[in-house]
């Protein structure tokens, strides 16, 4: 479990951000910028996070991108930043630009039919209240259920969904608090690689995430940037560093903000204390 090594990695990376005219900050949403909530529509960012991200964006030196398993449009009102950052939703299947331009990778007929069958399967068993419908994906959430009920639901959904997914070559993958059936062609790692290629190899780039679905993104950024696990408790990961939210996360993002403006930490602390919002 890295501790001291983390601080070295993080400080070295922030220095690179300060020295570069351009950088990229890629952020997962649920569990990273916002704590998990049983009611997904109440999963708001940790206090203090939004003003710092806004200031990083306003500097004009960092491209901020949200890379999330949520539907892209669903993130906008929760994040509360206008104009919002670029959002890659549903693990990279969707792209939503700040001006509202929206693109989605096309689904094949077999994939569409399989997702419809999976939805019908959930309805037939009375599981619709646990379902989240997204473009090219259906997720079942059991966060907040008793452990025994969550295990029972998990086992039943996996048994019912695997035959449907196999026929259409869809992926069934678990995440923290649920399971998802989705088109396997794109994942968060693909999104990170696409953004990194567009930005160029000399640009400092970091990806922050919490879940097992973020591991491919960690791997994608590892050879050319910084990968950071954001999570209250340590878990085995390929990420290079670990931050506990919200305090350590906010401190890292504030350091990034300072680097964008070449602002001494004491100035940053005074602004936070006396102005409230940045």
Helical/strand content category: alpha/beta
> Helical percent range?
40-55%
Tally of helical runs:
9
What is the domain tally? Answer: 2
Strand percentage lies at: 15-25%
Going across the biggest sheet, name each strand in turn: 5-4-3-2-1-10-11-12
Gyration radius, to the nearest Å?
Answer: 19 Å
Q: What sequence of helices (H) and strands (E) makes up the elements?
A: HEHEHEEEHEEHEEHEHEEHH
Question: Explain this structure to me?
Answer:
With 278 residues, the chain is α/β, with parallel strands linked by helices. The chain has two domains: 192 residues, HAD superfamily/HAD-like (Rossmann fold, 3-Layer(aba) Sandwich), CATH 3.40.50; 74 residues. It is built from nine helices and twelve strands. The strands form two sheets. The protein has an eight-stranded mixed sheet, sandwiched between helices. It has a four-stranded antiparallel sheet with strand order 6-7-9-8, with helices on one face. The two termini are 34 Å apart. The C terminus is likely disordered.
Helices and strands, with pairings:
Layout: H1 4-19, E1 23-27, H2 49-58, E2 62-67, H3 72-79, E3 86-89, E4 94-96, E5 102-104, H4 109-124, E6 131-134, E7 137-141, H5 147-168, E8 171-175, E9 178-182, H6 188-199, E10 205-209, H7 215-222, E11 226-230, E12 241-243, H8 247-261, H9 265-275
Question: What's the short story on this structure?
Answer:
It is built from nine helices and twelve strands.
Keyword list:
2 domains; Rossmann fold; alpha/beta; 278 residues
